[in-house]
C-alpha cells in the first residue's frame, strides 16, 4: 500500500500549487478562444495542434495561456515529458508556477533525480526562488530513489528558505524519511508540526506499517483518536494493514466497527483492506459475509477471497472463486498456485499451472515462475523445470535474485547439480539468497567441502550470510562428517556475523555430532543450550540414536520429544524401528498398539519418478499403477539377477514382526523406491539417468540394491530421500555409505 502522497490530482485552475498568474480579464477574444482550445484537448496530437495555433496567432506570449498549455503537456493523462520540456524551453521567462510544474513532472517520472537538476537550473538561471510548493516534489524525488542524504539536504534547504515548518513540506519529509528507513527523523518532523492534518497522521501510520512496526501504527492511531482527528479511508487502510500484519483479529474487528460508526467512506480500497484483514487473521466466515455484501468487486477482491480460502485449505471454495471471476488475471492464478505450493500440495500447484498454460492472453510473470519452480523442486519435476528455464530465456525475462535462487533450488532438488552450478555461474550479481541456494544444493548432494569453500568465497564477495546460509552449511557438514568445521562456524555465527542461533541451528549441530557418532557430546551440547530444546533438537538426537543403535539414549530423546509433542508419529516410528533393530519385539508391539489406540499413523513410504513430463508415484506394495504387473515382473527379474551376483537381503531392515524368512524378503522387495527404479528401467533406455524421490530415509537394503542395479544394468540412479541425494554409479554411491 502506497504511503499517502502530498501531491494532489491535477486540477490546474483551483489547486494552490498551480495558482500561477491570474487569468486575463481583458476582452481579448483570441486569448479566450485559446484557453477554450487547450481545455478541449483530449490527446497529445490535439495539444500539439493547439500549440502551433498559439504560436501562429501570438497567444503563446500570454503567460497564463503558455503556462496552462505547458501544465497539460507535463501532467495530464496523455502527458509527454519530452514534449513538455520542449514547450518549457520556448517560454521566454518561466515563472515559479512553470518551474514547479516541470519539477513535479520529473519527480513523478521514470527518472526522479532529473527533477533535482531542474531545481538547480531554477536557482541558478532564473530569478525564481523555491517556495513551499517546490520542496514537496523535490522531497518526493528523494523518497522515490530512497536517498536519505538527498532528503536531508533538501530538509536543510527548506529550513533555510523558511518553509521547513510548512505542513505540505513536513508531510513530504515524513514520507521521505520513512521511505529511506530513517524512522527517528520521520518522528522528529512529525513532532515539530504544530497543526497536524490527517495527512500527517496517515503518513506516520502507513510509514510504521510499511517499515515493520505495525504495533507503533496502532498506538499512533489510538493517539489520533484521543486528539479528535477525523480519520479518512486512507487512515483506516493503514490501521487495517497493521492489524493484518499483527494477526490481531480483535482489534481489526474494532476498526471495522469504528468505520461503520463514524461513517468513514468505504471505497473499494478500504473494503479490500477489510477483507484482507479477515482472511489473513483467519476469520474466513466474516470475510465471506463481507465478500457477499460487497456491491462492487474488482480483481483484488476476488484474489483476496481466493487467497483466504486457500490459507484455510478450502481449495474447492478457492477454485470456485477463481471460476467466478469475470476476468481472471495472472495475480489470481498465482494466488492459487502459491497456495497449493506453500501448503504442501505441489502436484495440485502443477495441475493449476498446466491449466494456466492453456489460457489465452495471460502472460506468466516472475511470481508464477518462482512458485511453479518451487513446486517442481518438491516433486522432482525436472522436465517442467527445464521448460520454465527455457521459457525464461525465450521471453527475455530478467534473471533477478528470486528467479535465480528458484532455478538453483529446482535443479538441485531435482538431482541435476551441474545445471544448478551452471545457473549460479552465469549470473553476475548474487545476493545472500542465491549464495545460500547454491550452498544448500551442494549440501543435499553431499558436497560438504565444496559448500564450505563456497561460503568463504561468499565472504570474499562481501555478501553477508543469514540464518538460512548457516542452516545449509551445517547440513553440508552433517552429510559429510565435517564436525570441526560445523562447530567452528557455529561459534562464528554470533561473534563474526552477528547472527543469533535459532532452534534450527542447534538442531543442525546436534545432527552433525550425532550422525558422526558423538552422541554424548551431542547430549552435552543440548544441556548447554541457552534456549529450551525443541522437538527438532530431540528429533535430531533420536535419529542419530537409530543410526548408531543407542537404545537407552533413544528412549530418553523420544520421551523428551513426546513431552513437547505427544502426537508426533515420527518419534513413535523411529523408536519402534530402534526397538526392532535391537530385537525388542515386545516393545515394538506396545508402541504400535499405542499408535493404534491414539489414532497415530505411520507416514507411508512413497517414491515418485518423472517420465515424459508425468510424475508417477509408488507406495510400498503398491498395485495401483496401470503398469504394476510389468513393474513387478521387472522387479522379480532384477532381484534374481542381483542374487546371482551375490546379493543377500539385509533382513535387519525388516522392522515388522514377520517369522517367515521368505515373507521378510518379500516385504523388503516391496519398498517403494525399488518399484520406482524398476519402472524407470522399463520406461527408459540406457544411458538415461533414473531419478527417484523418496519421502522417507532410504533403507540400507534399498541402498545396496540401487548400487548393484547401477552396476549390473549400467545405469546412473539418483535417489533423493528425506535428507539428501544418493548418486549411484558403477556400484558405488556418492554418500560413501555415510547417511
In short, what is this structure?
InterPro entries: DYW_dom (IPR032867), E_motif (IPR046848), PPR_At4g14850-like_plant (IPR046960), PPR_rpt (IPR002885), TPR-like_helical_dom_sf (IPR011990). This protein is mainly alpha-helical. It is built from 38 helices and 6 strands.
Structure description:
The structure is a single chain. The chain is mostly helical and 739 residues long. Among the domains are: 117 residues, no CATH class; 157 residues, Serine Threonine Protein Phosphatase 5, Tetratricopeptide repeat (Alpha Horseshoe); 128 residues, no CATH class. It is built from 38 helices and 6 strands. Strands 2-1-3-4-5-6 form a 6-stranded mixed β-sheet, covered by helices on one side. It is elongated, with a radius of gyration of 33 Å. The relative contact order is 0.03. The N terminus is likely disordered.
Topology overview:
Blueprint: H1 29-40, H2 44-57, H3 63-75, H4 81-90, H5 96-107, H6 114-125, H7 135-144, H8 148-160, H9 167-179, H10 183-192, H11 198-210, H12 214-226, H13 233-246, H14 249-261, H15 268-280, H16 284-293, H17 299-311, H18 315-324, H19 330-342, H20 346-357, H21 366-379, H22 382-394, H23 401-413, H24 417-426, H25 432-444, H26 448-460, H27 467-480, H28 483-497, H29 503-515, H30 519-527, H31 535-547, H32 551-564, H33 569-581, H34 585-598, E1 606-611, E2 614-619, H35 628-644, H36 661-669, H37 672-683, E3 690-694, H38 700-712, E4 717-720, E5 725-729, E6 732-733
Parallel strand pairs: 3-4
Antiparallel strand pairs: 1-2, 1-3, 4-5, 5-6
Helix pairs in contact: 1-2, 1-3, 3-4, 3-5, 4-5, 5-6, 5-7, 7-8, 7-9, 8-9, 9-10, 9-11, 10-11, 11-12, 11-13, 12-13, 13-14, 13-15, 15-16, 15-17, 16-17, 17-18, 17-19, 18-19, 19-20, 19-21, 20-21, 21-22, 21-23, 23-24, 23-25, 24-25, 25-26, 25-27, 26-27, 27-28, 27-29, 28-29, 29-30, 29-31, ...
